[in-house]
Amino acid sequence: MTGTMSSTRLGVAELAAAFDVKPGYLAACGNGVLPRAAVAAMTADLARCGLGEATAADYDAIVTQSRGLFADIVGVPAEWVAIGPAVSPMVAVVAAGLPDGAEVLVADDEFSSMVLPFRATGRLVVRTVPLVELAGAITDDTAVVAFSLVQSATGEVADSVAIAARARAHQALSVVDLTQAAGVMGVDATQFDVTISHVYKWLCSPRGVAFLTVRPEVLPRLRPVLAGWYSDENPWGNCYWPRVAEPRGARQFDTSPAWQAFVGARESLRLFAEADLEAVWAHACDLGDQLCRGLGIPEQHRAIVSWPDPDHAKLARLTAAGLRASGPLGLIRVAFHVWNTPEDVAAVLQALGR
Fold this sequence. Notes:
By secondary structure, the protein is an alpha/beta fold. The protein has helices at residues 12-16, 36-50, 60-74, 87-96, 116-119, 134-137, 160-169, 259-273, 277-295, 313-320, 342-351, and strands spanning 81-84, 103-107, 125-129, 142-148, 173-177, 194-198, 210-214, 304-308, 331-335.
């Protein structure tokens, strides 16, 4: 571990105080809100860029620190972490390492970034089953089981312990999207072979910063199809051919970083690296359950609450009331994070006439 974790965790109120978000923002599952420190850091950096005072090498330490902070948040050594721009390119490095005809098992209604890289070339066989059946559907023919720890559309939390155990028993790779989990709940990425997370949602970072974690023993089963000048332990010393050293470890999957995005991400990741994520999850789920009770539907014990809205009429009413929510798969989807309060629940219920 990198040692950046604090022994004193930030509570929900302290975290909420770091944001200037307006009341009624219920869409962290679609797009997080930048904390004040991230906005200030990016603004100052853009000013430096505008004056010609910034150089590319200035950002290397920022990327390194961001990598370490994310490693601490998901509980892995920094050496296990690669950087990238989004989820799907990182899934592609897993897909590229699979032999023709290999079976990839995914859940029904999985977010497409976790599926399309496996389907794109037509080389692989993608099989889908309901999420609750995912663990039991893994067989000796399964090369990869790929799933989101928290489902994007519904907020359902996968039985990751059972899925990972079954995958190990059948020598299948467990490939897990943490995008809807990291930042709102405690995550232990060491239990999976590969994890991927775009941090612009619950980790409240700028879009364009994502992370891949890889257990060292499965490195040979992935292919660095996105390799570039930054895919090296010392990119500044070896960026002209043929003086490029062969990359090793997770760094071989690095892609060239979006400098300004990392400036903001470092500040957001610092905040959540010191957060009491169990308290964040309890806070979010409590608000979710309050909403469920007000709606007269079963409590879901999730940070994301969704229920049917096939014509998007309910979503339209929330939008008209100045509330930010979303509507995938014929559902209305509301997300609760650190800045949300019982007043937000009351506003939703009032907008829906409850």
